[in-house]
C-alpha cells in the first residue's frame, strides 16, 4: 500500500499576517525599507535642491516606494493576502523593480552629492546622508526581493 505524502501546497510556507509579519524574515525588511526610504526623501527635501532633475527623481522614487511599501505592509498586517501564492509573486516583482529604481535614484543622489561638494557645507552633509540612506534602502529592497524569490 502506497503512503500518501504531503501535497505540494502544504510544503509551501504560509504567508504571515498580523504581528507575525515583523517576525518572518523576508517580510521583516518592509518596515526598515519604509523608515530608510522616509529618511531619503526627508534629507533630500531638507537640502536646497540645486539639481532638480536628479533629486526630483530621487524624491519621486523614495516617496512612491514608501507609500506602496506602507500599503503592502498594511495589507500583510490586515491579512488581505489570504495566503495566496500570487502575493509572493507580487511581492517579489515589486521589490525587484523597486530595487532597480532605487539603485538609479541612489546613483543620481550620489552624483548630486558630488556636485554639491563645493557649495554650502550643510547641503553637502545632508546630501551625503541622503546618499547613504538611498544605498542602504536599495540594499534592503535587494535583500527582500532575493529572499522572497528563493523562499
TrEMBL record:
One of its GO terms (cellular component) is membrane. PROSITE patterns: MARVEL. It is found in: Membrane. It comes from the Eukaryota. Keywords: Membrane, Transmembrane, Transmembrane helix. InterPro entries: MAL (IPR013295), Marvel (IPR008253), MARVEL-CKLF_proteins (IPR050578). Residues 21-151 form the MARVEL domain. The chain crosses the membrane at residues 27-51, 57-80, 92-110, 130-150. It is a multi-pass membrane protein. One of its GO terms (biological process) is myelination. Its main location: membrane. GO terms for molecular function: structural constituent of myelin sheath. The keyword Membrane applies. PANTHER family: MAL-LIKE PROTEIN, MARVEL-CONTAINING POTENTIAL LIPID RAFT-ASSOCIATED PROTEIN. This is MALL protein. It comes from Acrocephalus arundinaceus (Great reed-warbler). The lineage of its organism: Eukaryota, Metazoa, Chordata, Craniata, Vertebrata.
